[in-house]
Each structure stands twice: as structure tokens, then as C-alpha cells.
Specification:
By secondary structure, this protein is mainly alpha-helical. The protein is built from one helix and no strands. Helices cover 96% and strands 0% of the residues.
Length: 72
């Protein structure tokens, strides 16, 4: 391999290594976004369960009013 061929080879190798670094960064960013999304979904599911519990308590309280009317 002569000097010119080596220089072209090295330049191409550097370009490929740079592209690999860019791809790795995109990969890592996407992994982080997916993780954040999963955490956000878990938080929303926890909030949903809390809301379901609150609705159940309100339904129970409303049921108590209905029972008071029956007793009178």
C-alpha cells in the first residue's frame, strides 16, 4: 500500500469511525428517551390508580347519602 492509498484508507476509516460515534450517540439518546417514556407511563398508571380509588371513595360516600334517605 503506497502513501496515497494509505491516506485515502485512513480518511475513510476516520469517516467511518466518526459515523459510528454519531450512530452510537443516536442510539444512546433513543435508549434514554425510551426509559423516560416508560417512567412517565408508570407515573401516569400510578396516578390513574389513585384516581380510581378516589372515584370509589366518592361512590361509597354517595351511597351513604342514598341510605340516609331510605332510613328517613
Amino acid at each position: 500500500m503506497n502513501v496515497k492509498d494509505y491516506a485515502e484508507y485512513k480518511m475513510k476509516k476516520e469517516d467511518i469511525e466518526k459515523r459510528k460515534t454519531e450512530l452510537q450517540k443516536q442510539h444512546d439518546d433513543l435508549v434514554n428517551k425510551i426509559s423516560e417514556g416508560k417512567q412517565a407511563i408508570a407515573n401516569m398508571e400510578a396516578t390513574l390508580m389513585g384516581l380510581k380509588g378516589a372515584i370509589a371513595q366518592v361512590d361509597w360516600t354517595l351511597g351513604q347519602f342514598k341510605e340516609e334517605k331510605k332510613d328517613k
